[in-house]
Design brief:
The protein is an alpha+beta fold. The protein is 19% helix and 32% strand. It has helices spanning 33-48, 75-86, 114-120, 125-132; strands at 9-17, 22-28, 54-59, 63-68, 99-106, 137-142, 149-152, 167-170, 174-178, 181-184, 189-191, 194-198, 219-224. The strands form three sheets. The chain has a seven-stranded mixed beta barrel with strand order 5-12-9-10-7-6-13. Strands 1-2-4-3 form a four-stranded antiparallel beta sheet, covered by helices on one side. A hairpin with a 2-residue loop joins strand 9 (174-178) and strand 10. The longest helix is centred in the N-terminal third of the chain and has 16 residues, at 33-48. The two termini are 32 Å apart.
Amino acid sequence: MRAAEGGDMVDTPLVLPLGEDAMLVRFGATLSQDANLAALRFTRRLDARPITGVVEVVPNLVSVLLRYDRHQIGFQRLAGEVGLLLTARMDETDLAGREHRVQVSFGGETGPDLDEVAERLSLSVEAFVAAHNASRLRVLATGFAPGFVYCGFHPEALHVPRRREVRPHIPAGSVLFAAGQTAIAATDIPTGWHVIGRTQLRNFDPLREPPTLIEAGDGIVFEAER
């Protein structure tokens, strides 16, 4: 999803049924800082005040999915509980997550699109890497594939669109760049993002509990591997 330049939050979050046992609470039609933070705040509220009958909470870039046991709670009652949480006050400091420093090997065989990205931004490779690593990013969401991490937002001067063609396969650990964000692939996947490097970090291990290390709201600082 591309980051919106302006505010795109809906005036009132949309509460939508998904099948017989799921609800989607959507805070925006396109990705923006405000919509993403609203989804994160709501997720934190659910963590702090669990709703009886809700069996899974899955935050996304601008929405939160709630799976529930319809034998314990129905959609209308859940919608009422959600409405109360949406109006609850919350300490903003509760949004802060853990910080992760991620070492990246930029360019070369591990980052075949780095030169093209730097050229499109009228920067040298060294200047692009320095600008890319200059800011602490926030984990906007995880998902798409197991352990996949979306990080944002980069300043407008570093925005480039996705590639026109999809690569059918990139390896786990690939560091991806597009649409004002950097992403980290935790498994082998296809992608239309620019591949700018690779990290030894693997944010998914099915034998680990929990299987992922990074979650939405955490901070990410990228560093060039030495």
